Structure formats: C-alpha cells, structure tokens
User: Fold this.
Amino acid sequence: MPNVPTLFTALSMGSLAMDPRVYGPQTNAVVLKYGDIVELTINNFSTLLHPFHRHGGTFQITEYGPAGSSTPAPESFQNITVQKSKGSPMRRDTISLTEFSYVKVVFQATAAVNFFHCHNSIHSAMGMDMVFIEGPDVLQKTLQIPNAMYEMCHKQGIPTIGNAAGNIGFDFTGLPNVPTIVKQTGDNQ
Assistant:
C-alpha cells in the first residue's frame, strides 16, 4: 500500500503524474490520457468465478467467450461460444467472469482515479487489481479536494503530497516493500 493516497499523488506530482512509476509498485498503476478509449481483455483460466469491478465508472461489455489456453478446459466448458455485442453494448461496473472464459470490456478515460479489481478479497490481495489514473493532468486543473479530506489525512499521519512514498520524483525511500512470493527449496522439490 502506498504511503500517499493515489489521488493525492496524481494531484501533487505535476507532469510526473503521467508516469506510472510515481504511484509505486503496490498500485499496479496504469496512467491514461483524458479521453483515451481503453479495451481490456480479461481471461479466466480457472474453475473459479471472478467478479471484476470498476470503481468510479462503467465499462461496456463488447465480447465474451471461451478463454484461449494451452490447457484445454474441462469437457463441460468446451461448448461456450464467442458472443459479440451488437448496437449499443450494455454498461456495467461489475462483470462476473465465469470459468474458462474471457470478456472484453471498453471504457473511456475521464479525469479520475479508479480502482479495478476482482471482488474475491483474496484475489485482490494476490494482485488481481489495478488502479487507472485517468487524465491526471486534467485532474490537477479541475479537482478541488475539500480541506476536510486533508485534515482527516493529517490527523492520521497520512501524507498528502508526493509520490507513493511521500517524496519528490522517483525517491521511494520509506515506501513499504511489495509482497513477494519466495520460492522455498527442500528435499521434497
């Protein structure tokens, strides 16, 4: 988790706010220009349901079907066919991605910081999440954070300026380490 809330980094880093590195490795940040059209393809190669949710905005579902994989899906999932949207694709902020399937979603970047994640909490903790920093240059010109928000952060010791670590530029001194997977070795491997 970054020391500085991502929205405050977007507002306080000037032109560096367009560089995803300033948000720290914990955020899985994707910086978008205001008005960009974004298409995401989300694959589910497992037997688990993944409800993906976009905070702060909606997306259009343009296509879904069987997930392509070198590992064939179980027989009960092999009859899924590709479906493409016609006309005006439906808008949603959540899509439940079924077993062995994919979905394509499209949205237009606004001026916002929006979290996108799997609603299964353990999956989000495992990295099935990202933050879209949309039009940070526009945000800097148009968004006025209420003083009460700054006061609330300061009372809790949360910095409100700087990169993810609360520093200038790419100095990440003091930023908590990103969780990593450590491969264990032993006699049984």
User: Anything to note?
Assistant: The longest helix spans residues 147-155.
